[in-house]
Amino acid sequence: MRLFGIQQSLIILLTIYLSTFAFRSYGQVLPSSTDISYLYNPNATIYLRHKLVSSDEKRWIILELITPKSVADSLLFGLALTPNLDKPLDTFTKLDMASFRIFESGKNQLFAIDISNIKSNFAVFRIVQKSTPDSYTYIIELGNPAGLIISTTTLTLPDLKGYAIKGSTVKLSTLYGANADFGVSFFGKNTEPSLPPMADMKLLDPFEKPDTTFTAISGDSLATTKTGLYTIFNEKDEKRTTFFRIEDESYPKIATVDKLIEASIYFLTRDERKKLQNSSDPKKLYDSFWLNNTNSAERAGKMISAYFNRVKEANEKFTTYKEGWKTDMGMIYIIFGPPDKVFRTNDGVQWVYKKTYELPSITFTFYSNNKFITSEYYELERSTQFQTVWFRAIELWRKGRKSL
User: Fold this and answer.
1) Is the pTM of this model over 0.85?
2) Virtual CA dihedral for 386, 41, 82, 121, nearest 10 degrees?
3) Residues 136 and 38: beta-carbon distance below 8 Å
4) Fewest CB atoms within 10 A around its CB: which of 149, 298, 341, 348?
């Protein structure tokens, strides 16, 4: 049998409880108090993401490391298990990551780590860069895994981005390549962007009235001629749903005027958006908006460029069942920038922004939504206390005075 297009015999399974190696990294680690803001810093040396996958009795962490090979070769990985992120950890099991590597190309490496026998709530990776003081923590909640993988290459390798470009190959597979039946729905309708952080949540079902619903088997390819969302579930367990988007060729960038106006919803008023949408020359009117508000062509250009660069980064980091910029995390990231500090709690994630001369210090708390179990999807804890800081941040953007 083949696993992700690579002979299964090439992968040495992880046997955590029999390991005799201790991996110690700069003393004790309290996971809930460890800053993981590097994951949201566009200039960070490394980036990590993951997906949980299962087949029958087997469960795996598929871990993707994105970093230059020279950096990757200098990294040491340790792993600890814990039921509670408030519990201090001081010993990590040393991992020989070469044993788990299933793919390597350029800056990207994929690893498959067997966690079938693990009975714990969280896996905590501790990563140390040799000959430097740099270390990183990566935390995975060991929740309900997906029952399939989605590949977008000729090899059967899992794609962790959550989206593919229109016209590309998207194939459904199981962990071991065994036959399985899947229910598939496709939604071509536009998804709604997040509401401001002080607004009440709209409890709407985004998965009502699909355009099409059909069945598929492992090995089938999905049509990618239209942009939209696929929801896919194993017919043996409908709760284990995978979400995968098909996007235009420019994604994660914004490339059309219509999408440019749509993605500006966070700082435009309703009347301003309506005028832009009804204009015979919306691009000219859009440029005029920035020029009139900033009173500087240079500043206007700088703010437009900065805003849509953040939209791109949000799409890269937060795409789930909807585009990344439309998610709660994407909205906060775009308006306030990468958080200064990030802490993972037992229930979710906290983003901390330090006080600046423009804005006060503020903390946003996101809670995981268990309905979206195959990707780490978080919803913001909304509050009226955010109203003042939100409007202040929007005013700074509109006037071109937001520090970047």
Assistant:
1) yes
2) 60
3) yes
4) 298
* Closest CA relative to residue 324, chosen from 151, 193, 165: 193
Residue 96 CB neighbour total at 10 angstroms: 11
Q: Is the pLDDT of residue 16 over 80?
A: no
The contacts of residue 185 (CB under 8 Å, 6+ apart) are 207, 210, 212, 213, 230, 231
pLDDT digit string, tens, across residues 330-374: 999 999 999 999 999 998 999 999 999 999 999 999 998 765 545
Separation between Cα atoms, residue 219 and residue 255, nearest integer Å:
33
223 within 8 A of 248, measured Cβ to Cβ: no
Query: What is d(CA 260, CA 299) in angstroms, rounded to the nearest whole number?
Result: 18
Helical segments of 32-178, H only:
69-72
> For residue 377, what pLDDT is reported?
82
The whole-number pLDDT of residue 12 equals 39
Q: From 340, 342, 326, 341, select the one nearest 379 (Cα to Cα).
A: 326
Torsion over CA: 12, 13, 14, 18 (sign): negative
Q: Which amino acid is at 108?
A: N
**372 closest CA partner among 233, 182, 203, 243:** 243
Q: CA 317, CA 111: separation in Å to the nearest integer?
A: 19
